[in-house]
């Protein structure tokens, strides 16, 4: 198998697994929230947030380091895996004790502490699976990782549906996570033994010091991102309790589902941007502006549309018990818009070997986020937490724009005009949504989408190249889902977009109400 074929296979299987994971995870979220109620869902969300923050302490960047070093020299595989097994075990024990001490120090009730303990054990088992996934990635055998990712989500959803069927309590509900992680770890170990190696477990403290010395930059980035994602939930639980956490996370986790869109765009365009940095800075700048334009054309109508239909969305997915989440969703959706906006700048800096700049920006964002949450949450609860996320995202986006400008990248006048037109087209769509607000939400979305597309055409926002670019991205995404090989043929796909036909049959059955 040549290099192009390997890249094609790896991108395809990872893309498919990520898309399926988002879909399965979405239904897991909805069924969990409906069954557990606001308080129970808040407790589970808190446990996942705390372990999410501490999960980096189990890894400390070792996975990323192992992928890099083993990929360069396959003979190092046993040395890295063997040494990190015991090291990761020690880090897991430290993490478990730290999480329990934090939980007791904060003063959570016994049930909440027990749920946190169970989810921490789940996170530890999952961390060992991730360690073996790094081996699969280093050997460019992504299919084994993809099977593990999809199987984990299927098992978790199936387990949760069984838990709901048998009317289990919150503790038993959380145990489903542990059972799922154990099964996936067993699968990962079997693949490791049969396809790769039998780990030679080593106890070498000098090697551990060497590994940690090399992995700390990756660890700092991971810690910053995890705190950035989860610290608001922890602070909210301490200051306002589990119900506030439940209302907040019902909206927050919905918007996280939308992040599959930048993943698709990155899969299609980031490799090209990296190549252009080495061959043509001018072409890199053009690609960056095209990516920014396309992401904003997608993000802005999502933001306006969600604000105007938030009440219908919460009722559809969660039911009336979560109506207090509506205003949080109307605020938090703009976090998605801002993430979409900064994504091209992140990809640009990454393609230009400016990763350290990205790390510094996220560190500043974390400091601002934690400080501002401590000030605002006591007064405004989960609504305040939502506002803080928006303020943090605005700060981070601003820093990305300033950093890109410092390195000679900025948005042209044409891109700025296109942004204004996209906002205008979205406002036109929004006016129709307000006018037709009484009709069924699915019909409302269809009409809104149609009005938006017509507005884009009237305002002539997209040029011929961009239309071809969008068609090419959709074609690649569609073909990846069919398991086709696409990498290395972007020129042909751009030429043949006239014959491109993209069909999506989407059937959404009403959720069963528990």
Summarize the entry for a quick read.
With 514 residues, the chain is mostly helical.
- Radius of gyration (CA) equals 23 Å
Secondary structural class? mainly alpha
Number of domains: 2
What is the overall silhouette?
globular
What kind of sheet is the major sheet? none
Strands, count? 0
**Helical amount:** over 70%
Q: What share of residues are in beta strands? A: under 5%
What pattern of helices and strands is seen along the backbone?
A: HHHHHHHHHHHHHHHH
Can you characterise this structure?
The chain has 514 residues and is an all-alpha fold. It folds into two domains: 237 residues, no CATH class; 233 residues, no CATH class. The chain has 16 helices and no strands. The protein is globular.
């Amino acid at each position: 198998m040549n290099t192009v074929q390997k890249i094609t296979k790896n991108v395809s299987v990872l893309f498919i697994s990520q898309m399926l994971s988002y879909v399965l995870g979405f239904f897991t979220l909805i069924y969990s929230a409906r069954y557990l109620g606001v308080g129970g869902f808040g407790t589970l969300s808190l446990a996942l947030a705390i372990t999410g923050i501490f999960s980096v302490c189990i890894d400390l960047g070792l996975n990323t380091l192992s992928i890099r070093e083993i990929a360069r020299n396959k003979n190092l595989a046993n040395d890295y895996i063997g040494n990190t097994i015991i090291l990761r075990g020690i880090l897991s024990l430290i993490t478990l004790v730290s999480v329990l001490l934090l939980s007791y120090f904060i003063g959570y009730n016994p049930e909440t502490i027990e749920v946190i303990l169970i989810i921490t054990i789940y996170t530890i088992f999952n961390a060992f699976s991730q360690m073996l996934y790094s081996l699969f990635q280093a050997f460019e055998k992504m299919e084994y990782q993809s099977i593990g990712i999809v199987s984990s989500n299927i098992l978790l959803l199936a387990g949760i549906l069984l838990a709901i069927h048998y009317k289990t309590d919150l503790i038993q509900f959380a145990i489903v996570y542990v059972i799922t992680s154990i099964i996936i770890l067993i699968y990962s170990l079997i693949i490791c033994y049969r396809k790769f190696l039998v780990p030679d477990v080593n106890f070498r403290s000098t090697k551990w010091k060497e590994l940690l010395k090399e992995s700390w930059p990756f660890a700092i980035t991971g810690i910053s991102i995890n705190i950035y994602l989860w610290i608001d939930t922890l602070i909210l639980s301490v200051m306002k309790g589990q119900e506030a956490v439940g209302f907040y996370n019902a909206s927050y986790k919905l918007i996280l589902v939308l992040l599959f869109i930048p993943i698709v765009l990155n899969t299609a365009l980031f490799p090209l941007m990296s190549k252009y940095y080495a061959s043509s800075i001018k072409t890199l700048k053009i690609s960056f502006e095209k990516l920014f334009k396309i992401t904003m054309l997608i993000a802005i109508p999502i933001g306006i549309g969600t604000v105007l239909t938030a009440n219908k969305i919460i009722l559809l997915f969660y039911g009336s018990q979560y109506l207090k989440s509506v205003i949080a969703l109307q605020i938090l959706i703009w976090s998605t818009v801002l993430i979409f906006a900064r994504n091209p700048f992140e990809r640009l800096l990454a393609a230009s070997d400016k990763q350290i700049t990205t790390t510094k920006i996220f560190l500043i964002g974390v400091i601002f986020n934690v400080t501002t949450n401590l000030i605002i949450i006591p007064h405004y609860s989960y609504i305040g937490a939502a506002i803080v996320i928006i303020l943090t995202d605005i700060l981070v986006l601003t820093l990305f724009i300033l950093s890109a400008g410092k390195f000679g990248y900025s948005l042209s006048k044409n891109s700025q005009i296109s942004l204004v037109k996209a906002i205008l087209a979205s406002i036109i769509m929004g006016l129709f949504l307000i006018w037709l607000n009484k009709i069924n939400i699915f019909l409302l979305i269809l009409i809104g989408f149609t009005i938006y597309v017509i507005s884009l055409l009237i305002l002539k926002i997209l040029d011929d190249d961009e239309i071809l670019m969008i068609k090419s991205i959709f074609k690649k995404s569609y073909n990846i889902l069919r398991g086709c090989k696409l990498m290395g043929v972007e020129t042909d796909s751009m030429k043949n977009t006239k014959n491109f036909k993209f069909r999506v049959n989407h059937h959404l059955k009403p959720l069963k109400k528990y």
